[in-house]
C-alpha cells in the first residue's frame, strides 16, 4: 500500500509539473528560437544570437569596407555638387550671351521683337509646361501643379500683350482672367491637397532657387530698370537701349533661375515616383 501510494504521488507530481504554462507568461525570444531549432529531437546547445552591432564590431574587415563606401559616397556628392555649380553658372550666363546676340549680332534695341524677348517667352512656356507635366503624372501634386502652371501661363500671356492687342484690344486681360479663375477654382475644389503640394515644394531645395528667381524677376529687374535712375547715372549720354538692355537682361536672368528650379523639382518628383 505504501509503495502504491508513493507511485500515485509521483505520478501526480509529474502531471502537475507537465501542465501547460500560463497564458500570460511571455516566453523568452532566445528560448523560443532554441526550442524551434531543437524540435526535431536532437539536443544541441546553441549560442545566443549576436546582434548586428556585435557582428559589425567583431568583423575585422568591416571598418575598411565602411571607409571605402564612405569615400565613394563623398566623392559622388562632391562631383554632383561641382556639376550642379557648373550647370548653374552656364544657366545664369545665358542672359548675357542673348544680350550680346541682340546688340552686337542683330543690332536691335532689345525691344518687343528680339532674341531676349523670345528667350523669355520660351522660358515661361517651359516653366508652365513643367508644372503641367507634374500635374499629369503626380496625383498628390496635381492641384498645386495646376495652380503653379496657371500662374506662369498668365505671365506668358502678359508678355504677349502687344501681339494679343493686335487681335483684339484687351484680349490678354480676358485670357489672364479666364486662366486664373479656372486654375484657382480647380485648386479650391481640394484645397488641402493643393496646400500639401505647395508645402512639399516649399520644403525642397528648389523652393529657395525659385524664390531667388521670382525676386529677380518681380523686384530687382523693375527697380534696376527705372528710367530716372539711368538718366541720373548717364546724364546727357542717356540712351533708352541701355535701360532696356539692363531691364530685359535682369528679367531673363530671373526666368532662367525659375526654369532651373522648376526642372530640378520636376526631376526630383519624377525620381521619387519611380521609386514607389
Please describe the topology of this protein.
Layout: H1 2-17, H2 29-37, H3 52-58, H4 62-106, H5 115-137, H6 142-159, H7 161-167, H8 171-188, H9 191-202, H10 205-224, H11 227-234, H12 240-275
Helix pairs in contact: 4-12, 5-6, 5-12, 6-8, 6-9, 10-12
The class by helix and strand makeup works out as: mainly alpha
Question: Could you say how many structural domains there are in total?
Answer: 1
Number of DSSP helical runs: 12
Kindly provide the radius of gyration, computed on alpha-carbon positions and rounded to a whole number of angstroms. 35 Å
Give the terminus-to-terminus CA distance: 78 Å
Return the string of H and E elements: HHHHHHHHHHHH
Biggest sheet character: none
Task: Tell me the total number of β-strands.
Answer: 0
Which percent bin holds the helix content?
over 70%
Judging from the principal axes of the Cα atoms, what is the shape? Answer: flat
Averaged pLDDT: 80
Work out the strand percent: under 5%
Unreliable residue runs: 1-39
